[in-house]
Amino acid sequence: MSPSRARTTTALALLLLATTACTAAEHESTPASHSLTVSRQAKQLRLPLDAYASTVAETHLVEDAQDILMRRCMNGLDMEWKTLPSVDAQDTEPPNLRRYGADEVEAVRYGYHPSPDPPSVIRRNRAWDEREALPAEVQRAAYGPSGKGGCLKTAQRQLVGDTAPPKYHAFNQLTGTALETSRRAPEVRDALRKWHVCMAKASFDYPDPFSAAGSERWKTAEPTATERATARRDVACQKSAKLVTVWAAAETRIQRRLIRQNTDRLHETKARKDRWLAAARRVLNREGG
C-alpha cells in the first residue's frame, strides 16, 4: 500500500476543519477551469507556529524528490515508475485558510462548501489513486510488505540518510491551544460579540463563525441559496467586526509565548523539516540540471 499522500490541506488545515466541524470532501468530478481562488487576506495570513509545520507545497517538494529516487530504484528492478504530476503553485491552499471562519471569496461562490480542487490537484490525486491500483508485485517492490520498505525506504535513505521524518505532535497540540486560548482573549470575545450582533440583525442566530460553518443544514451535495446567503452575511459581519485582524493579532501574541515556552520541543521538528527540505531541493536541482 502506498504511503499517505499530501492533499490540498496540511495537518494544520485538517486540525482546523475538525475544530469548525467542517469536512472538506475531495472533488473528483468535472475539473475546475480555474485555479484556487481565495481572498488576499487568507493568502497573507501567517502565524508564528507556521514555521514549525510543512506547507502543502513543501510536502509536495519532498514527495517529488523522493519520487525521482524511487524511479531510479524501480527502473533498476526493470519496473516502470511514473513520477507524480506537479501541482501549480497557485493551486495550494494557504496554511491558515478558514482558521477563523469562512473565507470571503469562497463564501460568495460556494457558501461553506470547500471550493473544487483545481485541475493540477486533481491530476496529482488521480496519480496517487493509480498507484494504489498497481499490481501487487509492483506495490511490493515500491513499498515492501509493510508499506514503508522497498524502493521507498531506499529513496528515503538516499535522500536524508538516517534523519527521521519530522513529527508534528508538538505543533498540532500548540496550534490548537493557541486557537482556543486566543478565542478567550477579551478583544476577540468583543469582536465575536460584534459579529454575533451583526448576524442577528439578519436573523441568523449563531454564537460564532465556527457554528455557522459547521451547521448540519449545509451537509448537502451542493451549496444551497440559503447557505450562500448565510456565508455572505457571515463574512460581511467578520469584516465589520474586524474579526480576522483582531483574532490573528491576539493569536500571534499567544503563539510567540508558546514558542518561547516550548523551544526544545519545536526545535527538533523544525531541524528535521529543514534537513528534509534541503535534501529534496538538492535532488530536484540536480534533476533540473
Descriptive report:
This protein is mainly α and 289 residues long. It has one domain (11-288). The chain has 13 helices and no strands. The protein has helices at 11-19, 40-44, 56-76, 104-110, 119-132, 136-143, 150-160, 169-183, 186-201, 209-213, 225-241, 243-261, 263-288. α6 packs parallel to α7 (150-160) and α9 packs across α11. It is globular and about 70 Å long. The protein starts with 10 loop residues before the first helix and ends with a helix. Residues 7-33 have low confidence and may be disordered.
Shape: globular
Number of domains in the coordinates?
1
Overall residue-averaged pLDDT value: 88
Distance between the termini: 32 Å
The beta-strand count equals 0
Give the number of helices.
13
Give Rg in angstroms: 21 Å
Structural class: mainly alpha
Question: SSE order, as H and E?
Answer: HHHHHHHHHHHHH
Instruction: Tell me what portion of residues adopts beta-strand conformation.
Output: under 5%
Biggest pleated-sheet summary: none
The helix content, as a percent range, equals 55-70%
Layout: helices, strands, pairs:
Blueprint: H1 11-19, H2 40-44, H3 56-76, H4 104-110, H5 119-132, H6 136-143, H7 150-160, H8 169-183, H9 186-201, H10 209-213, H11 225-241, H12 243-261, H13 263-288
Helix pairs in contact: 1-8, 3-7, 3-13, 4-11, 6-7, 8-12, 9-11, 9-12
